[in-house]
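Example record for the data management plan.
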Amino acid sequence: MPLADDRSAFLQALEAWKAQDLDQLLTFVAEDILYLVNVDGIQVPYAMSAVGKEDLRGRLQLVIDTFALQTYSIDKIVHEPDHSRALAHGVYRHRATGEILDIRLRFCAWFAEGLIAKVHELHDASYITAFEQFVFHLMSAAEHENP
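Corresponding structural encoding:
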């Protein structure tokens, strides 16, 4: 498939996430996708890597079920000969607690036969700090509910 089609698929997948249209997003993903997150959370399953489209569907559905997307912007996209990269900014509200998670995400995507075959979701130090604070608030709230 032409490189322009790969680039278009990447942008459309990002836009589908912004619209919280999981079914649309998954139309751009290969069945055997490898989705790697550099901050895998064992206790927090929405920050985990996924192998295969159905595993990814479950992970992303959990994010949608857990958080209400407040704002999401695709701040930058760069296309390289063998992959595409994007920088996104998202503000999510935890549905149960109202806690806000304000994060920047970097994505690198590789393609096979016109579909996204591999993604690296990269989080920087400020994301890790925000994530740690978020988890701390959730754990504190849980302790107060169940002393």
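Summary line stored alongside the record: The helical segments are 3-18, 22-26, 53-66, 125-145.
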